[in-house]
Amino acid sequence: MPRCSNLVVAQSGGPTPVINSSLRGIIDGARDFGQIGTVYGARHGIEGVLKEELIDLSAQSAEEVALLRYTPVAGSIGTCRYKLKSGQKQDFERVIEVFRAHRVGYFLYIGGNDSMDTAHRVAEVAHARGLDLVAIGVPKTIDNDVGDSAFKLIDHTPGYGSVAKYWTHEVQYANEENKGSCPADPVLVLQAMGRKIGYIPAAARLADPERRMPLQIYLAERPCPLAQLADQVNDELRRSGRCLVVVSEGLDVGDVGQVKDVFGHTSFGSSQTTVAQIVVNYLNQVGLAAKGAARGNVSGTFQRGSMAYASSVDLDEAYKVGQKAVELAAGGESGYMATILRMPGPIYSVRYDKVPLVEVANSERTFPAGWIAPGGMDVTDDFVRYARPLIGEDMLSLPMRDGRQRLAQLAAIYADKKLPEYVPEADRKRG
Amino acid sequence: MPRCSNLVVAQSGGPTPVINSSLRGIIDGARDFGQIGTVYGARHGIEGVLKEELIDLSAQSAEEVALLRYTPVAGSIGTCRYKLKSGQKQDFERVIEVFRAHRVGYFLYIGGNDSMDTAHRVAEVAHARGLDLVAIGVPKTIDNDVGDSAFKLIDHTPGYGSVAKYWTHEVQYANEENKGSCPADPVLVLQAMGRKIGYIPAAARLADPERRMPLQIYLAERPCPLAQLADQVNDELRRSGRCLVVVSEGLDVGDVGQVKDVFGHTSFGSSQTTVAQIVVNYLNQVGLAAKGAARGNVSGTFQRGSMAYASSVDLDEAYKVGQKAVELAAGGESGYMATILRMPGPIYSVRYDKVPLVEVANSERTFPAGWIAPGGMDVTDDFVRYARPLIGEDMLSLPMRDGRQRLAQLAAIYADKKLPEYVPEADRKRG
């Protein structure tokens, strides 16, 4: 790589409460390495690279960079769902052209499995074109589905711990709500994110590891016919007069009117109806074994944006995995993802390491079948032992000003454009 | 009234983040008055009175009573939606009978307009039967619809400030989400509670009093045809590439499959579909003036249960209005509601006073038409000046234990039953 070259960081996919902590870890970390020049943030992920929209992150005030810790989701430099498909040769060439024009020797991609694949392919094309580019992946997803099911490539992804903590509180409060209002609303259905992967709905159990609440958890991995679900809810109503039902947004309950994104993933937030709604309507139609009606909550993006419930453990880890990625980049270790591995022993601690991008890109993490309790409406204590340390112990102290949270406000300082305008291939096709 | 008689407090209707603060104010306040004996909490509101389920609140530990401050919604003693209709003569007689059996001389009813009416009628029947009962109302509702539109009976109801603060944060985070994800999700629709009353959706403006966000607020009070709403959203998409849309759950967008509660109110949390869903589907069907899809969030009961976003001002006021109610009770001032009135002048401060229950019961508060901005998709600065002080300045510090919030856990200490079993009239009818 050139003696001193610049770094581009880009984000991809759905945001998390801690994605900006990884970004901050990268900005702070880069200051320690003389071989890294300016840190640029691609505006809206790879789309910003293609459009040559590069925010100068090295020129931002120290205060705003520090505030990234408490600024959730991806509003600061933006994310995208633009997929660099292997056929989009012009896009790949454009990325190389932009990197060359801005003397970029380091490319850090914050994202999930798809992004690790993209980072890997960008590096391949760069090397084929003679550009000395170090490509490093930075893991991120609330779904916790990056890596392998044996937890050897990565123990958990930054973002998951905070959403798990959100669900701990949501279920604690929902239980108070349901306990207080059950004469009128005996059933409260809560829909959790996570697509078809059960880590987020499973986190509801962290609110009640002693199993004192009338709580049922339905993961997409263990389909349950609506009639059986209703029977189980009514059994609980006969026992305790009320029931909390947590459902995965990807639970198979018939047609929800799916809308797919460009990755082919279902965008559950845009579906014509929701699993919670279908479950609530079904319960009210077949009738409850108690007076009153079922009602539902679909928190949507708030569960990944609600900063007061973010986990301090998750925030710290996201920051450090960003620093680790910079360290790998500075060491010229192209083709790796920075990772978090759990140390053995009873005291929770982690170490930061690297795994090859290709291994991550070709792996698929599912929710371990052994962590679903017999009966299919709960998770096991093994899951609780896995997830409990990730939510940390205490609440954050959010910076406030004039009654609102003081969020980071990056200045719109962009690298001068050096190339002709470019319309990303996939956008052209739709025009 | 008898020289020393007992007090029953009951809750009615939807819970709030601060309802337990009023309860705590009553428990603490009662200790100052020798004429008040034991404080009982009716389990699930008036249903608990009818069923003679009276929790001994005077016997609870000081620590658990203190924790009521940070314990949202109504799980501690419960609430209900059981309506004491004037025709239910047996129910009224039973209330008097239970009060007589437990030497109850004070009845404090925490609720909205309906509850003030009920409290008033219970007092009337008691007096007609020769029972010396002091009935006092304690205002509560997140909707802020208790009292009059001139704000002379009450400035605002406890509960509203906390939900307004929740919306301040929700919109701040939603704006970051939308700013970050707009290439894929350019429109984010957020549905707010408040039935047909606009105070809660209006609070979205507190997140952005300078009007820098691409934020549109649609109140039920100013109906907007879906086609016009879509045009306005698309105009914003052409301007800034993204749009945040806050809609009232009671906005008229056609049939949502209403489910009504016993008060005849629509239970929007049980509707077959939601306003947000209808708006999202409509926008995606007519097409957006930007790539990507609209998505929606319906936070549901979490907005009234999410303790981290509760307002310290609201919590303090809820506590004091509970204390005020006890003071009125101890003074024998039956037939009043304790109230909060704003003092004139630029510095926000309130005083605690009383207003006759009948005046509150017969009043109706609407959202002032003058606070809806011309164009019908925003609220005015006058509204912001009214609501801003209610959300306070800082975040709470929630008590945590083992990664979870330490919520109040009242002991199940009940008054001994002295009367035969009784099935409430409305429950009999359904049997």
Largest sheet of chain A: 7 strands, mixed
Poorly predicted parts of chain A: none
Mean pLDDT of chain A: 93
The DSSP helix count of chain A reads: 14
User: Which pair of chains forms the biggest interface, and how many residues does each contribute?
Assistant: A-B, 87 and 87 residues
How would you explain this protein's 3D organization?
2 copies of one chain form a homodimer. In chain A, strands 3-2-1-4-5-10-11 form a 7-stranded mixed beta sheet, with helices on both faces. In chain A, strands 7-8-6-9 form a 4-stranded parallel beta sheet, with helices on both faces. In chain A, 61% of the residues are buried. The mean pLDDT of chain A is 93. Chain A is 34% helix and 16% strand. Chain A has 431 residues and is of the alpha/beta class. The first copy, chain A, has helices spanning 19-30, 46-50, 62-67, 89-101, 113-128, 160-181, 199-202, 226-240, 275-286, 302-305, 312-330, 357-361, 381-387, 425-430; strands at residues 5-11, 36-42, 54-56, 104-111, 134-139, 187-192, 215-218, 243-248, 294-298, 336-342, 350-356, 400-401, 404-405. Chain A is elongated, with a radius of gyration of 23 Å. Chains A and B meet through helix 6, helix 9, strand 9, helix 10 and strand 13 of A and helix 6, helix 9, strand 9, helix 10 and strand 13 of B.
